[in-house]
Design goal:
- The protein has helices at 25-37, 91-95, 113-118, and strands spanning 5-6, 13-14, 18-20, 42-44, 60-62, 70-74, 79-82, 140-141, 147-148.
- Helix content is 16%, strand content 17%.
- The model has no long low-confidence stretch (mean pLDDT 92).
Length: 149
């Protein structure tokens, strides 16, 4: 059964064949692998904040809101691992108990970390890079369901 989806700006619409909301990396990997085996395109949607058709699909739409929060935090090094579906608006509160903060965030905080990185979201100031410049490592689920770091 197909459902209708519209982005934040209401200028992009689609009818995904299915919508999946995995709550673990294993579920995410299995969903991606199954879709690939069936020849279906997989698109993560995040917060749907992009004004482009980046999240539009007639295949499998991945909603990553259940993959949210801190995976690990190392206050001494300042390194934090966040799930891809973590909204930027939640990051300051998640980091505060560790005495940490992002170097720079923009004024729009609806995006997920994965969405902000994949669309080139940035904060302000000449001496600061985009959100992606704050990444030291990441894990990716490949089309075959494997996870690489």
């Amino acid at each position: 059964m197909s459902t209708s989806w519209v982005n934040w700006g209401r200028n992009q619409r689609c009818r995904p064949m299915s919508v999946c909301s995995p709550s673990t990396v294993d579920e995410l990997a299995a969903t991606v692998k199954s879709a690939a085996e069936a020849g279906r395109r997989v698109k993560p949607v995040g917060a749907g904040h992009s004004f482009t058709a980046i999240a539009a699909t007639d295949g499998v739409q991945l909603r990553l809101d259940k993959l949210s929060g801190i995976v690990a935090a190392e206050p001494q090094s300042g390194l934090v691992t966040l799930f891809a579906g973590t909204c930027l608006r939640d990051v300051p509160g998640l980091l505060a108990p560790y005495g940490l903060a992002m170097e720079n965030l923009g004024d729009i905080d609806a995006q997920t970390i994965a969405g902000a990185v994949s669309t080139g979201t940035h904060g302000t100031g000449l001496r600061y890079g985009g959100i992606a410049a704050q990444i030291r490592a990441l894990s990716l689920v490949l089309a075959d369901g494997s996870v690489v770091d």
